Amino acid sequence: MKICKRCLHTLPEQAFYRRGTGFRSECKACAKAMTANWYAKNGDAARAKVRQWTAENGDKLKAYRAANRRKHYLQELGRKYGVTGEWFEQQMNAQGAACACCRRVFSWDDKQVKPHVDHCHISGKVRGLLCNGCNTTLGIVGDSVERLVALAEYLKCHG
Q1: 37 and 95 part of one domain
Q2: Is residue 142 part of a domain?
Q3: Ramachandran region, residue 106 (left: φ > 0; alpha: ψ -120 to 50; beta: rest)
Q4: 15, 27 Cβ separation under 8 angstroms
Q5: Cα–chain center distance at 148
Q6: How many CA atoms lie within 13 A of 7 on its CB side?
Q7: CA–CA gap between residue 67 and residue 23 (Å, rounded)
Q8: How many angstroms separate the first and last alpha carbons of the chain?
Q9: In this structure, are strands 16-19 and 22-27 parallel, antiparallel, or unpaired?
Q10: CATH number for the domain including 119?
Q11: Do residue 35 and residue 91 come from a single domain?
Q12: Is 153 in the same domain as 87?
């Protein structure tokens, strides 16, 4: 248990952001409120500073993003879907580094064939890796097998 220096509530350590080997002095709720307050007062200046830095360092930024695309994507997977880098690598190997549906080989330099984690929007269960087109198609049809079958039948008749 820890006391928040702002609201003075006694809270479990999970209610505080980590800082180094310990925890911040204010709870997450107070920290979020402080950040929102700061951005309300300083948001325009902060955005202008970021725009200026981006304009001055655009080439460095593009190079950094290209060099670190995979690393950042793997970090995002953990946050969004709760999967690890090991899971991702195992899935890539199991699928031959290709889309589980259309078998197009993945490429980090092309958004259309970059690996996308497919998951059920209802249960949250992660199913595999798809290319952008296959992943988007599943989303558009709402993961409906019946709708996909109906579309396939339509193509057979009118293809």
Answers
A1: no
A2: yes
A3: beta
A4: yes
A5: 27
A6: 15
A7: 32
A8: 66
A9: antiparallel
A10: 3.40.1800.10
A11: no
A12: yes
Minimum mean pLDDT among 67-71, 102-106, 126-130: which range? 67-71
Give yes or no: residues 33 and 89 share one domain: no
pLDDT tens profile 70-125? 888 888 888 888 889 899 999 999 999 999 999 999 998 888 999 999 998 888 89
Whether residue 149 is found in the same domain as residue 94: yes
Radius of gyration for the chain, computed over Cα atoms and rounded to the nearest angstrom = 22
CB contact at 8 A, 129 and 117: yes
What is the model's pLDDT at position 110?
87
The answer to whether position 32 is within a domain reads: yes
pLDDT reported for residue 20: 87
134 and 106 Cβ atoms separated by less than 8 Å: no
pLDDT in tens, 15-55: 999 998 899 999 999 999 999 999 999 999 999 999 999 99
- Residue 105: its pLDDT value, please? 96
Take residue 141 and report the two structure tokens written for it: 């049809």
**What residue numbers bound the domain in which 100 lies?**
83-158
Buried b (16+ CB within 10 A) or exposed e, 111-142: eebbbbbbbeeeeeebebbbbbebbeebeeee
Check residue 123 and give its pLDDT: 86
Q: What total number of domains does the chain contain?
A: 2
